[in-house]
Backbone:
């Protein structure tokens, strides 16, 4: 972590899955739309406030006159824009929730206040999730007690993890690295400490890592 | 002629009054007390979050603080705020009635509120509750070791206050309008309170029901929500948000009503598009019931439900957008002055605009997957509920203060406080949008070092905001005893409430007023 980050000035967030840039794209489109709307409306309010301030000599004739169905326009335009954004978002949302076939599955159990992880190879770990780069990975998750949520900001993904049933989250990582993992559904005393990291390894490194099934120091798990 | 204030001066005459105006005063004292309780909890939260380490209070205390803050602010301040104070005081007067339809039910509503408040205070004294204001199961039913039942009892009880008040308002608007006060001559404030009342009466019973189910599961172990007992935790979320999303509209519709009254008065112009404003209020009330699932895009509900709720959430944004455009258009060719209520109202428009636009980010399900459960959501709903509803509430308090108390406050100080509030609010909550996008989850007692700068900005904004909230308490209290006497119509405003004395006589109108036209008969003039 660099000095800026240590000082709390780091306003960047990595983007490390195939879908993350698309989600950011929609985010920034909404930001642009919002900035435009804010500037336009605030500018109108300020302009009217100055021009039509009490005591100004601006023309007020026909102040209550008819206005060319302007209200129809400002119902239709936002409605159209909202529907466009909805469709854009809906397509992405469906992609987020539809894993491709042949995913590498990793099994995760949340409990107050830790994540237990089991790989297909049998290797287990706690609060760290090693995943392979460049292939679709599916996390199959459940909880042993209350609701938790598995949240990886760098992936722009989160999914509630429920007791009594499985939920799943899929992604395809695009950059090797270590990314913060948070529990984002409030789960009691140490909710803020229930986290860890997702470690993206190249496929070969992941397979080598997963094959080392002997528990190493600091990775002891329950029986 | 004696006013409602001088008609009986004993404590008893206040505590057993059935005068809607006095009950409004009782409510305003009670909700102000709870506002500062909730505000104190928020202050401690912002002090804790000034540093990344959890070093001021323990994790459990922190969890109890944000739960207390949420429960108190939502149910004991925001939901009753405008309806029980300004609504209670003004609704009968605005429609030309002498009181509400059921004056004693109105008093009962106040004491039920107090009883709910006692449960909540008892919960805090007993040791507090740590479930978050959302009471998510199975944490709240089977895992929390805090005083969940006391807290739930408080919320359950106060809900009946909402229902009674709503019922009272609905019947009053239907049956007690003065001669000539047709539906489309009603002030927008009345329309807003009327719609809010319908939402209160329809939604609150669902909350009461879900709280009872929590109590049964917690006490008797009968499984409604905990899968270990055969229940479904998502069912809880559906029931909870079926109430709690419309609850947002219970908070913001009255605020929209207040702002409509203020902007038209200080722009000296008829409200732009009165009919559209009425339909927009109604549309928000109706569609607001159909969007609850947007709180649950990552909860495990089906993807198709998510898509439908996303679409409906975009649709509910349309009437809100219409209202913002119409307020702006009302300024066009007006004759605008900037007394304190107008600063609050324009501040509301700005903050509601940002709150509404960021709502689009959350309605977009794909983006919500990243942003939900983070500080982005915290910032968004504070823009609506604090930036919006509280600014409007204070704007309304200032606008009708001369009518309610018969006194004037110090205009310049009030203007400065309003501007300070706008600035402090933005400094507190804008950085939280960035924090959320960067991935800081909400309800975190500790956080990563890289988030500190934005949290320090937010906490410093909270200092300014706190000062801006204390200021009106001081100068308005001063005005109550020392302020200059107010005339009947200090703002040269239109509307029946300004045709009677300040403060109003006990029975409001000596003769039922005759209404002969549309509201807001203002005409701007150049000089």
Residues:
């Amino acid at each position: 972590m660099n000095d800026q980050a240590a000082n709390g000035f780091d306003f960047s967030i990595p983007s490390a899955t195939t879908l993350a840039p698309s989600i950011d794209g929609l985010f920034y489109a909404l930001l642009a739309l919002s900035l435009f709307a804010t500037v336009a409306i605030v500018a109108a309010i300020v302009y009217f406030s100055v021009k039509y301030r009490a005591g100004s000599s601006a023309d007020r004739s026909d102040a209550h006159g008819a206005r060319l169905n302007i209200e129809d326009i400002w119902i239709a335009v936002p409605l159209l824009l909202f529907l466009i954004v909805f469709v854009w978002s809906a397509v992405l949302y469906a992609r987020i929730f539809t894993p491709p076939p042949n995913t590498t599955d990793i099994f995760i159990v949340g409990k107050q206040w830790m994540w237990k992880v089991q790989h297909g190879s049998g290797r287990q770990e706690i609060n760290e999730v090693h995943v392979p780069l460049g292939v679709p990975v599916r996390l199959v998750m459940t909880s042993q007690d209350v609701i938790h949520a598995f949240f990886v900001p760098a992936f722009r993904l989160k999914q509630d993890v429920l007791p009594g049933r499985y939920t799943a989250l899929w992604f395809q990582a695009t950059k090797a690295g270590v990314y913060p993992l948070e529990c984002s559904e409030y789960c009691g005393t140490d909710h803020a400490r229930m986290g860890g990291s997702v470690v993206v390894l190249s496929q070969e490194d992941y397979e080598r890592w997963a094959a080392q099934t002997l528990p190493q120091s600091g990775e002891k798990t329950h029986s | 002629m004696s006013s409602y204030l001088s008609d009986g001066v004993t404590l008893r005459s206040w505590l057993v009054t059935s005068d809607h105006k006095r009950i409004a005063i009782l409510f305003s004292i009670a909700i102000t007390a709870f506002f500062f309780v909730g505000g104190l909890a928020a202050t401690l939260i912002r002090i804790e979050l000034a540093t990344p380490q959890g070093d001021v209070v323990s994790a459990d205390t922190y969890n109890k603080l944000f739960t207390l803050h949420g429960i108190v602010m939502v149910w004991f301040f925001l939901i009753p705020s405008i309806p029980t104070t300004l609504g209670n005081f003004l609704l009968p007067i605005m429609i030309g009635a002498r009181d509400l339809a059921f004056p004693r039910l109105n008093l009962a509503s106040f004491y039920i509120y107090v009883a709910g408040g006692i449960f909540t205070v008892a919960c805090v004294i007993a040791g507090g509750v740590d479930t978050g204001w959302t009471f998510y199961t199975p944490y709240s039913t089977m895992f929390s070791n805090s005083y969940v039942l006391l807290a739930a009892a408080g919320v359950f009880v106060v809900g009946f206050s909402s229902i009674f008040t709503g019922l009272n308002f609905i019947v009053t608007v239907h049956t007690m309008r003065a001669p000539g006060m047709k539906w489309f001559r009603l002030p927008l404030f009345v329309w807003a309170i009327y719609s809010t009342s319908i939402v209160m009466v329809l939604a609150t019973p669902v909350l009461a029901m879900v709280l009872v189910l929590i109590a049964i599961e917690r006490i008797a172990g009968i499984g409604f929500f905990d899968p270990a007992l055969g229940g479904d935790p998502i069912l809880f979320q559906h029931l909870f948000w079926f109430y709690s999303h419309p609850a947002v509209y219970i908070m913001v519709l009255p605020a929209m009503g207040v702002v409509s009254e203020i902007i038209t008065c200080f722009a000296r112009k008829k409200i732009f598009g009165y009919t559209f404003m009425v339909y927009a209020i109604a549309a928000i009330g109706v569609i607001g019931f159909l969007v609850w699932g947007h709180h649950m895009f990552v909860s495990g509900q089906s993807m198709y439900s998510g898509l439908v709720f996303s679409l409906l959430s975009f649709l509910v944004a349309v009437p809100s957008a219409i209202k913002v455009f119409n307020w702006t258009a009302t300024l066009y060719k007006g004759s605008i002055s900037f007394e304190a209520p107008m600063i609050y109202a324009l501040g509301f428009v700005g903050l509601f605009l940002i709150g509404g636009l960021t709502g689009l980010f959350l309605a977009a399900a794909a983006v919500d997957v990243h942003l939900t459960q983070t500080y982005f959501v915290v910032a968004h709903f504070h823009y609506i509920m604090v930036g919006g509803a509280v600014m409007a509430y204070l704007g309304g308090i200032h606008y009708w203060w001369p009518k309610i108390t018969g006194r004037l406050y110090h205009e310049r100080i009030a203007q400065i406080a309003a501007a300070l509030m706008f600035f402090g609010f933005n400094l507190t909550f804008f950085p939280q949008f960035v924090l959320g996008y960067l991935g800081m989850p909400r309800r975190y007692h500790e956080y990563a070092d890289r988030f500190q700068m934005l949290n320090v900005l937010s906490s410093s904004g909270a200092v300014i905001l706190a000062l801006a909230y204390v200021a009106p308490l001081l100068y308005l209290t001063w005005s109550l005893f020392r302020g200059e006497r107010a005339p009947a119509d200090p703002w040269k405003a239109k509307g029946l409430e300004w045709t009677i004395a300040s403060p109003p006589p006990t029975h409001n109108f000596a003769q039922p007023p005759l209404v002969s036209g549309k509201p807001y008969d203002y005409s701007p003039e150049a000089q």
Q: What stands out?
A: Chain A has two domains: 19-97, 104-211. Chain A is about 30% helix and 25% strand.
